[in-house]
């Protein structure tokens, strides 16, 4: 059997499609893999800090609206295109376009998605390395007695050490690509089975702890009172970009996972469950972190270090903090790993299927390129901290380019392809929604609300639409 896909493991006999590609063994496994992709640093690291930077409630509301009106319809469309095209993102767009007689140029959307995922992984691995570095620190008790200042200093010291950052980032890349090279569906499945519930329970414990700080209500108000005067135009774009990022959209991840989905499984139900789990984790992370921010006199808009400064204070104070903290950062690193795996798979499938090279070669090639690029992110926190373009460091620039520009553009292209280049019957059949009214709702949302929503946010940001 072929080694051409993530699900074609050495020990895991995949079901043959006849096309030398593997398939998930069940809808449940697909759900786990898609949730593993969606839930990651985006929920626990990024959501709190960008919420803090953008003033709280109004940002959260816009983000939730983007998930509902843009993210969920697009998630279904991507999985559908992947399953219908049965190939890497570029190949899938090309195949579906061919089936319906649309222009072959639609395939560039797939190429853009592959590139987006690749670029994201280069900085994602570095941040995942922070979690990996913090797990042993928590377990050996380095967080005992930390306050806001000393915790900030600890984090700053890590960022200042390029060797440490590069070392942990490299370790994340090695783990990710090692797993991907083996094509271990079973390993992924086993890890996800305990990781997801484990992460959820730990977050609940942290929220429980947060209620004892005396600042829980303040955090609830911060997160859910929508004061639109605090939300900038840029903030709206950040909320839209994050809806893509957190659901792993416009980066090839969901499409390539969809390409391994057996025919006949419900895309709609699974997508809704994935989006629900993803949103729940993000909101729980917010509820766990902001009480700590306020209780320790920290700045909500402190930036990318927010959780790495606040959580250690809590772990240093709570009973069994070493165990809870150690477990938490291990779970976070694992959650990041399952997302990183999904970020790497589109590039690898693309290299294998487009250039006909072996899977191992594709892994090594992309690994080398990713590693080199990741060093740019590493250095942007120390040696290159002052090197900026448009006022952004290498890391900030890469994050902005991928999440706020490439993802919305790729997403817009994908909804236009699905809603306007494909016919209603093709889509209804490919999606497998029997329920006519439900389908009509989704179809109209996808054709009108989603593209118009993305366009408005874009034009708004460019200052063309007040
Ligand atoms: N959704 C992941 C997270 O929130 C990140 C990701 C983005 C994964 C794009 C795959 C593709 O952490």
Automatic annotation (TrEMBL):
It is a multi-pass membrane protein. It is found in: Membrane. The keyword Phosphoprotein does not apply. The chain crosses the membrane at residues 28-45, 57-76, 108-133, 165-184, 196-217, 237-260, 272-294, 320-341, 362-385, 405-424, 445-465. The keyword Lipoprotein does not apply. NCBIfam families: Na_transp (NF037979). PROSITE patterns: NA_NEUROTRAN_SYMP_1, NA_NEUROTRAN_SYMP_3. This is Transporter. InterPro entries: Na/ntran_symport (IPR000175), SNS_sf (IPR037272), YocR/YhdH-like (IPR047218). Its main location: membrane. It comes from Pseudomonas borbori. One of its GO terms (cellular component) is membrane. GO terms for molecular function: symporter activity. It holds the Pfam family SNF. Belongs to the sodium:neurotransmitter symporter (SNF) (TC 2.A.22) family. Keywords: Membrane, Symport, Transmembrane, Transmembrane helix, Transport.
């Amino acid at each position: 059997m072929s080694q051409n896909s993530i699900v074609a493991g050495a020990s895991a006999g995949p079901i043959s499609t006849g096309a030398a590609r593997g398939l998930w063994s069940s809808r449940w496994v697909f759900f786990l893999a898609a949730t593993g992709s969606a839930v990651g640093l985006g929920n626990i690291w990024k959501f709190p800090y960008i919420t803090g930077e953008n003033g709280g409630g109004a940002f959260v509301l816009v983000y939730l609206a983007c998930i509902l009106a843009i993210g969920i319809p697009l998630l279904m469309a991507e999985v559908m295109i992947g399953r219908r095209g049965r190939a890497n993102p570029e190949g899938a767009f090309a195949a579906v376009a061919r089936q319906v007689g649309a222009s072959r140029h639609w395939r560039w959307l797939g190429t853009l998605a592959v590139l987006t995922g690749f670029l994201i992984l280069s900085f994602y691995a570095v941040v995942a390395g922070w979690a990996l570095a913090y797990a042993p620190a928590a377990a050996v008790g380095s967080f005992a007695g930390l306050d806001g200042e000393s915790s900030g200093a600890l984090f700053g010291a890590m960022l200042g050490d390029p060797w440490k950052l590069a070392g942990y980032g490299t370790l994340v890349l090695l783990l990710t690509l090692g797993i991907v090279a083996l094509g271990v569906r079973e390993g992924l499945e086993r890890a996800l089975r305990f990781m997801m519930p484990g992460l959820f329970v730990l977050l609940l414990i942290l929220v429980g702890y947060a209620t004892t700080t005396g600042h829980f209500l303040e955090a609830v108000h911060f997160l859910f009172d929508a004061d639109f005067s605090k939300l900038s135009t840029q903030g709206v774009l950040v909320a839209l970009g994050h809806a893509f990022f957190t659901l792993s959209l416009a980066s090839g991840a969901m499409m390539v996972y969809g390409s391994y989905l057996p025919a006949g499984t419900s895309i709609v139900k699974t997508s809704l469950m994935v989006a629900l789990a993803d949103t729940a984790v993000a909101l729980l992370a917010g509820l766990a972190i902001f009480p700590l921010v306020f209780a320790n006199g920290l700045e909500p808009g402190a930036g990318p270090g927010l959780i790495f400064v606040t959580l250690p204070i809590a772990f240093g104070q709570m009973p069994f903090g070493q165990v809870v903290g150690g477990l938490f950062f291990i779970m976070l690193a694992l959650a990041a790993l399952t997302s990183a795996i999904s970020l790497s798979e589109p590039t690898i499938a693309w290299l294998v299927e487009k250039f006909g090279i072996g899977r191992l070669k594709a892994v090594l090639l992309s690994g080398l390129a990713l590693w080199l690029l990741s060093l740019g992110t590493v250095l942007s926190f120390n040696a290159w901290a002052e090197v900026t373009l448009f006022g952004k460091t290498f890391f900030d620039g890469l994050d902005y380019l991928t999440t706020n520009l490439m993802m919305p553009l790729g997403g817009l292209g994908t909804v236009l392809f699905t809603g306007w280049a494909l016919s209603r019957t093709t889509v209804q059949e490919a999606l497998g929604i029997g329920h006519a009214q439900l389908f009509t709702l989704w179809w109209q949302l996808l054709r009108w609300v989603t593209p118009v929503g993305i366009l408005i946010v874009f034009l708004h940001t460019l200052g063309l639409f007040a």
